[in-house]
């Protein structure tokens, strides 16, 4: 056993096994660096995530450009009415949909298995995902607002209170979408099927939550169904930011219901967290 | 082979005089004697490991030991339970029964500090495609409390020239060497290598073997699973053959299967008839043949003296009495 006692490579190590394990916050930042780099280098995904809400806004605003939406007393241009829904759908895209697909793919391609074999805590893996989601959502929403303001002359809110609402709906919506994405990611059988499984869910939610159509124009049973899910509330919260206060009269309840918005999003956050923690799998569902 | 300096198993107890048909039983018997390593030197100790998938008993009372600093190759046909066993040792899978100690801990309960001491090179990784080689190794190094220098590790696997290249652009062999770099950058005491050279060209395989032996010489204990018998013969200090979820034979590559399995085979042709004889004294037999069976030119026709290779022994072990 002479070989075992010499350890020529041991000198290259900092301090054998006595070194302390790096903390979860620091490792979340390391993971975020990896996630952001990988995300930016997947050009097609970057284009899709950032261009989709902007493209939708452009198409719908152009097609329905002369159909103002309003109460008769207060009318706003279609682009302005449509923008909050696009902000909401963008948040759902970058948080929920992207995470479901990326985690399912990473379960397939060996990323999760490799990380599981290292001392990286799972909290740091999710921390990295949350930071990536926040970064992409911020960039995407900023780009969407810039295009809306500059190309479609949508007036931006001037009241600081509106921006405070925007900030908490944005953060809470992103957090809820992220956590629900982690929970939902265990459902698709493989990375390849993930997008097929999640896309219909996202599409249906978009149609019934007042993203593509004026929510007040939907049948009431559809409004009721949508009220169970977070997207309707994120969109409604964003409408309170970008639409004149008088238009609250068009909401089903006649008000913006900000307290209910916070309540529903927090409830989904908590339920999502419990489900995500209980169902998260490092391996594929069909793998033993 | 460095294996001569390592603890050798006791000679097999069973079956002298049983020629080619070695039963699975005697391997198990002699294996018991090999497994008594002093506790402080045991990197891995497994007793009676069991794992069932539905109706299939994938692992069925498997025992294995790894002493610190040795390379042990686990051989066996597909479905024999190799991968399941390794995944249980890595902490990826729960077991149904048996006793498992890896670096002194139960992998099912071990935490981050334990994972910092193991390295895993799994099969078929396609992850991190968009990172560069250097980025990938550096990020992984930061997960560990006392990592090796990432640039040195990249150099050790011969990827310095590719350090700036995207992982996606690597060839199969380069990708595999990156996997090894990622598996060892944390400075593991125990490294799991799962069929590491599948798809390598002969030269890349040879380079890879040198790398593995250097790791071992640096004190790393290595558990290697492979289908490549030449690889096991070249790298392993000991080999364990797994069949139907248990170890059926264990020993150094030179002694696996016992002396009976290694008895040289002398073949020759006399009067147009092919003769085969197994003997421990092949030289004497050859001399005898020279005197009695040589032609007018003094040559024995088609004379051949061969020792069964590890592959011959292995095939004997895994096909003997097999149901399929």
Word description of this protein:
The complex is a heterodimer of chains A (288) and B (324). By secondary structure, chain A is mostly helical. Chain A is 68% helix and 1% strand. Chain A has a two-stranded antiparallel sheet with strand order 1-2. In chain A, helix 4 (78-108) packs antiparallel against helix 8. The longest helix of chain A has 31 residues, at 78-108. The two termini of chain A are 38 Å apart. Mean pLDDT of chain A is 86; it is low at 1-17. In chain B, strands 5-6-7-3-8-9 form a six-stranded mixed sheet, sandwiched between helices. Chain B has a three-stranded antiparallel sheet with strand order 2-1-4, with helices on one face. In chain B, strand 6, helix 7 and strand 7 form a beta-alpha-beta unit. Chain B starts with 23 loop residues before the first helix and ends in a 5-residue tail after the last helix. Among the domains of chain B are: 1-70 and 77-117 and 189-195 and 219-262 and 310-324, P-loop containing nucleotide triphosphate hydrolases (Rossmann fold, 3-Layer(aba) Sandwich), CATH 3.40.50; 264-307. Mean pLDDT of chain B is 84; it is low at 1-39. Chain B has helices at residues 24-34, 82-89, 112-115, 133-141, 150-156, 172-184, 202-217, 229-235, 258-262, 282-292, 310-319; strands spanning 42-53, 56-67, 71-75, 97-102, 118-121, 190-194, 221-225, 238-243, 246-251, 265-270, 273-278, 301-306. By secondary structure, chain B is an alpha/beta fold. The interface between A and B is large, with 44 and 53 residues.
